[in-house]
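Why do we care about 3D structure at all? Because function follows from shape, and shape follows, mostly, from sequence. That is the central idea of this module. The next example makes it concrete: a single protein chain, its amino acid sequence, and then its structure expressed as tokens.
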Amino acid sequence: MMMRDLIPWGRTRGTETTPFHEEGRDPVASFHREVDRLFDDFFRSFDSRTPTFAGRAPRVWPSVEVSNTEKEIKVTADVPGLEENDIEILLDNDVLTLRGEKTSENNGAQFSERFYGQFERRIPLGVEVEEDKVEAKFKNGVLSITLPKSPNAQAQVKRIAIQH
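And the structure:
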């Protein structure tokens, strides 16, 4: 007797099949589908383009982009639905803080992936900047902040030659 002979489902003897194959009631196939669905839901929650388990967008908001050149650091934040006066920008001990609140429009939606509420993003700069020359611009829901590096920080940049 082989192991597969001990399994009561999935075996065809002559023309009859076991009751588990009737109308898609195979418990192993059903279990397999359910486990696949659970894994798909779980791993989908890590994809920033899809909602998490509770149907909410990721809690890291606003999305930012930081670029660093020899002379300046530029921070760009996507803040759709906000106005300039909804956002506070602070610079303290080489840490840039973006803080504000997006209020709900309360349109009676039954399901929403939009972010509402208070937010705060702290971005460590790692270099000294000229605080009096920092500029912030806001256009079409995009906040752009330019932070010029201090001459002292620019002098600390050391180019390393590549040898061949």
